[in-house]
Amino acid sequence: MADKGPLLVVTEQREGALVVSPKGEVGYHEAPTLRTALREAFDKKPKRLVANLAGVSYMATPGLATLVEALQISKRTQTPLVLCNLTDRVRAVFEIAKLHTIFKIADSVDAATAP
Amino acid sequence: MTTAPEIRLELASNPAYLCAVREMVNLVSRRTGFPDAAAGKIALAVDEALANVMNHGYNRRTDGRIVMEIRRVEKSAGLEGIRIVIEDEGKQVDPATIKSRDLSDIRPGGLGVHIIREVMDSVLYEKREGRLGMRLTMMKKINPGEVASSCGCEPRGDTCG
């Protein structure tokens, strides 16, 4: 578990996927914690990486940038990346930035990890 | 008509405090009458603006000063919206160079100005006259049909507690 700053990130292995679940706010100060957790997750070479955003109550552009960077790693390493459980507030930020179309987004962890 | 500042806040250019400022802006916006979703977006725009000052104006120094003022803007029929002014003493840049980037270029970073311009109804960057730093003036109008009846806080007397 990465615990730098008020953002907590839990990473757990599910069948066929590694699920990264940040909890808290992802602003300028907290985004490096998520970035570290995602990079560590990619280093484990999972079949699929799921970012479960159910616990993210706020996201600013450094959080978006972290996820865009994760998408780039995902493409480079051919590791599918799926986001899931976006709250209305977080989804609105994706839409303002017009990034909601470039990610694969699922409604639940189960849907995100389904083959 | 712009009233005197409802709130004047001075803070250090330390990103550790951004969470407190965005929470305050969210609450003040709701208290002013904006519904939850709009208040959240105003807080996001302020968060992005302050992060830009810390990142670019002060080059990530944490001892710079930033002053933020929040005003209600009234018109004859009632509330028109909210005006937020952010001033710093950091590096001055030509306001014409402060632009949103091309969103079709998918890459990390550079989205803050786009978010600010997308959320707020007017955005004006200026060099502060005769001294260091920049001034950012942002205005968000309220749709009379969407005025919230309260900020959603548990009221204590006439405050939002």
Task: Please explain how this structure is put together.
The complex is a heterodimer of chains A (115) and B (161). Chain A starts with 7 loop residues before the first strand and ends with a helix. In chain A, strands 1, 2, 3, 4, 5 and 6 form a six-stranded mixed β-sheet that branches. Chain A has a single domain, classed as Transcription Regulator spoIIAA, CATH 3.30.750.24. In chain A, strand 1 (8-14) and strand 2 (17-26) form a beta hairpin. Chain A is 38% helix and 29% strand. Chain A has helices at residues 31-43, 61-77, 88-96, 109-113; strands at residues 8-14, 17-26, 49-52, 55-59, 81-84, 104-106. Chain A is α/β, with parallel strands linked by helices and 115 residues long. Chain B is an alpha+beta fold and 161 residues long. Chain B has a single domain (7-146), classed as 2-Layer Sandwich (Heat Shock Protein 90), CATH 3.30.565. Chain B has three helices and five strands, in the order E-H-H-E-E-H-E-E. Chain B has a five-stranded antiparallel β-sheet with strand order 1-2-3-5-4, with helices on one face. The longest helix of chain B has 22 residues, at 36-57. Chain B is globular. The relative contact order of chain B is 0.20. Chains A and B meet through helix 2 and helix 3 of A and helix 1, helix 2 and helix 3 of B.
User: Pair with the most extensive interface?
Assistant: A-B, 26 and 25 residues
**Average pLDDT metric of chain B:** 87
Beta-strand percentage of chain A? 25-35%
Helix content of chain B: 25-40%
Question: What keyword list fits this structure?
Answer:
heterodimer, A: 115 residues, alpha/beta, Transcription Regulator spoIIAA, 29% strand, B: alpha+beta, Heat Shock Protein 90, 26% strand, globular
